[in-house]
Amino acid sequence: MRIDIITVQPGLLESPFSHSILKRAQAKGLLEIHVHNLRDFSTFKHQQVDDYQFGGGAGMVMMMEPVVRAIEHLQAQVSYDEIIYLTPDGETLNQPMANQLSLKGNLLLLCGHYKGIDERIREHFITREISIGDFVLSGGELAAAVLVDAIGRLIPGVLNDETSALFDSFQDNLLAPPVYTRPEEYRGWKVPDVLLSGDHRKIEEWRHEQSLERTRQRRPDLLGNPKK
Ligand code: ADE
């Protein structure tokens, strides 16, 4: 999969993809990430990319022209399955969406800034709008990094058995059960006996019960019950 990201803050995206699992995904040739500076596509003085909004009001709007030039420049080289705009008023990212996007070919991400992008870009170019939660960030870059991380680790072949996503929280609409490692006892705090029993059927049952209980307590909405 190839992911291109268009941003006015390329510096913010310099390092999040050079570590751990995403680094390995790129080294294995399963993922390619390219960050593009929107200002490079501006034909205006001082590489301007934003302007005052029609109708008045505080805050600048990202202009059509540089964004369209950037998108069309990339589209001439790469065919994209989705052109995604990161915005707080998009659909909220969740695990099923990440699973679905991880199976796509190439993605183009557009990071919003200021008051956002001219609505006509959304109407004519954007195929999907994604928010990472009900809060407002200063720009779409960190949201793009979150999205790329959530998708990248799910690309087939990226995770091995040890890091498998099968048992992640949300994979079956349940939160993950608690986990423990050595020592068996620390300051009198013990690891649950069942995990030391060697009885794999019992261990699986215990984990499932813990997952259910944790989900009931913390995220009843995942079980179809409204959150209190
Ligand atoms: N840009 C600003 N806030 C955002 C959010 N919560 N999700 C995605 N993009 C954003």
From TrEMBL:
It is found in: Cytoplasm. Residues 1-224 form the tRNA methyltransferase TRMD/TRM10-type domain. CDD domains: TrmD-like. Its EC number is 2.1.1.228. It is an enzyme of class 2 (transferase). Residues 209-228 are annotated as: Disordered. It catalyses: guanosine(37) in tRNA + S-adenosyl-L-methionine = N(1)-methylguanosine(37) in tRNA + S-adenosyl-L-homocysteine + H(+). Keywords: Cytoplasm, Methyltransferase, S-adenosyl-L-methionine, Transferase, tRNA processing. GO terms for biological process: tRNA N1-guanine methylation. It comes from the Bacteria. Signal peptide: none annotated. GO terms for cellular component: cytosol. Residues 209-221 have a biased composition (Basic and acidic residues). GO terms for molecular function: tRNA (guanine(37)-N1)-methyltransferase activity. S-adenosyl-L-methionine binds at residues 112, 132-137. Specifically methylates guanosine-37 in various tRNAs. HAMAP family: TrmD. PANTHER family: TRNA (GUANINE-N(1)-)-METHYLTRANSFERASE. Homodimer. Belongs to the RNA methyltransferase TrmD family. This is tRNA (guanine-N(1)-)-methyltransferase.
